[in-house]
Amino acid sequence: MKNIQWLLAARPKGEPTRGDWKHNETQTRSPEKGEILVKVEYISLDPAMRGWMNEGKSYIEPVELGDVMRAGAVGEVIESGDDNFSAGDKVYGSFGVQQYATCSAQGVHKVDPELAPLERYLGVLGMPGMTAYFGLLKTGLPEAGETVVVSGAAGAVGSVVGQIAKIKGCRVVGIAGGKEKCDYVMSELGFDAVIDYKNEDVKKALRSTCPDGVDVYFDNVGGEILDAVLTHINLRARIVICGAISQYNNTTAVKGPSNYLSLLVNRARMEGIVVFDNIKHYGEAARDMSGWIGQGKLKAKEHVVEGIDTFPDTLMMLFRGENFGKLVLKVNHD
Amino acid sequence: MKNIQWLLAARPKGEPTRGDWKHNETQTRSPEKGEILVKVEYISLDPAMRGWMNEGKSYIEPVELGDVMRAGAVGEVIESGDDNFSAGDKVYGSFGVQQYATCSAQGVHKVDPELAPLERYLGVLGMPGMTAYFGLLKTGLPEAGETVVVSGAAGAVGSVVGQIAKIKGCRVVGIAGGKEKCDYVMSELGFDAVIDYKNEDVKKALRSTCPDGVDVYFDNVGGEILDAVLTHINLRARIVICGAISQYNNTTAVKGPSNYLSLLVNRARMEGIVVFDNIKHYGEAARDMSGWIGQGKLKAKEHVVEGIDTFPDTLMMLFRGENFGKLVLKVNHD
Description:
- The first copy, chain A, has helices at residues 48-52, 127-140, 158-167, 179-188, 202-209, 223-230, 262-265, 282-294, 311-319, and strands at residues 2-8, 21-27, 35-44, 73-80, 90-93, 100-104, 109-110, 147-151, 171-176, 193-196, 214-219, 233-241, 269-272, 302-306, 326-330.
- The N and C termini of chain A lie close together (11 Å).
- In chain A, β8, α3 and β9 (171-176) form a beta-alpha-beta unit.
- Chain A has nine helices and 15 strands.
């Protein structure tokens, strides 16, 4: 079968451009023993992809030039060379930005389309949900009654962070861009307050929305917002560094947090997290989160864009704050 | 008796200048009940003093304009209105930059001049020693075999950090400025390696002196050196933020650590410390450290400058890296 793929053609300087990608047409390959052939249905688009395009050591190997762009995805097994999978199984795996993937069955796991729509396994029941769950609970260590602030509050990770913090009895303040996202965070997700960073002075708004200071800050954005929150943290605050989407496309140096000495004054902590470290505990997290979804305490929203051909442009929506909910690419198979 | 004091006359912008201080001559006051009159012998000069000169909230109240500059000091009780102290007692307290202090006996404690020279109670047996002990052991959490890097390695805090890390079985690399300090760190303190930041490329030198990466970084300086170490940390590294002497006199914004996203990649932690939080445990620390001094495992060096009149200039030695060992001012009483 014909298989359309997006290959990494060049390492971007600053914002990725169309020229950094190669649109490739190839043929599917039958799976060998231990492999499966998957028809990809939804591809996860994540801020982390920007980092995978760079050369050099990170928490994961970079994507090599000429390789299919790495991406988490869900789809259906259409041919299996592995005893654990059969044609018709719905599966999650690192299938890449392509219509079909022939890959080792290792690291692939089945998902239940009865329990939740397939695309949800890329959001609240996938990496973003796991990132929120473990980052908040294991590193943020929120206690009931504390104030938790989260940036990217309407996003795939931030929306889950805030909802879990509410479940744990915290006062939750979101930071998001634009009225529509802010309204969603308040009325749909039930946060206690929201700051619209596009239309408000974040420092001032932190003072009014967090009268008792900030105990936990879950940071998805970095830059000026991280700096603003640092001026308002409490003694022994925990700052979870999950991402820094405002800085990923910088062509100059990343803006470090000028107010980091607030960590000293407040004996506070700033700690980085990578979701893969918790892989052995994904099961517990999925059970907790499915339970909360069932009870209506945890809501999810996906932003679905159709057509694998739109990939280079659709990815950029993340960096422009144009997506509203977990961004996924729905793969068309003509 | 005549009492010469230094008062804070203005809040400095950038480097403190002579005009920020007022030289004042007054008379001593007899102690009331619960007070003591102390003849101050040695005054501790510390980087933290720069922070106390600023307005606004920090981990401690700022010094008010017109007040005697705050300083830890040691001296002799010459008149006591408190049952716990008698004339002739040698004591440590926050006596300020002056020849004589009449103050509440609360927070003052006796020191033993037989056990160590008086000025040592401002260094390894005082705040800098306690800062090193608790910052390294409680926040740095070094394990035998790990690599510990410390900046300001020849200084009052750094020299103790490195020696305690050696006692705990770590590989220790110091960062200091100039050949004399670097030689001292190697030959007297027994560090495993040293980097002369004034004459070496710190990033390169970190690669060669820390072939297994950095597990604990104890930071006294901030700025470029913190940024360089961030590029070379290991998974789950602990960065102890004790100070940032390179930044205290900035007139522009503090330089935040541009490479802070290394915390994310390495799931590492950056945490601030303030020594006063450990006040209940100073006793244990003093016992440990006295023991190590007795065994010759922990060495101390003070840099004594004579004459209270030199205070404004002597303080500046800290920010220029001109002191070599714990900087103390020996008070003259004509």
